[in-house]
Design goal:
Length: 180
Amino acid sequence: MAIYLIRHGQSEFNAAHKDGDPDPMIFDAPLTPKGRLQAEQAKAAAMDLGIMQVITSPLTRAIQTAQTIFDDIAPIRVVAEHRELLSYSCDIGRPASTLKSEFLDLSFDHLEEIWWHQGLTNENGVPLEPKDVFQERIRGFAQDLARLTERPLAVVGHGNTFRELAGFSMANCEIRLYPG
C-alpha cells in the first residue's frame, strides 16, 4: 500500500529567506497565512487518498501542516527522525515540553527534550548537522517506513529530507507518492 510524502506549507522562514541572503534567524518557523492556505488546498487533494495514519516532523511548520490536512481524518504521530537537515535557524526545534503545551492533541512523551541535532555551530550560533549524520538518519527512517504496515500512510516533512529519502524536490504542500 501507498506512502505519500507531503512537504510542509510556506513557513515564515521560507517567506523571509532568499538563497544567498543571511539567515533571518527565525527559529522553528511557523506557517505563514499563505502556508495555511496551501495546507487547506492540500487537504482537498488528500481526502481521496484513504490515509490511515500520519507521521509528522516535530518542527512547527510540519505539525501545523499535518493538523490542517489530517485533523479528524487520521491519527497524527510525531517522529523526529525525518526532521529537516539542521543548517538554518528555522531547523532548530523547540523542547518537547514546549511543543506538548502548544499542541495538546499530540504526544511528545517519546521525544527527548532536545530532539534536534546538537554540535558545532556557525557564526550565528546555529548547530550545523554534518551531511553524513543527516544521511544516516534518513537511511534509518527509510528502514522504519518499510516496517510500517498501516497504510496508506502520509509523511509530513521537509524539502532536504524528501530529497535525500526519495531523490526529488518538492514544492510547499506538494503531495507525492514515495517510490521506496
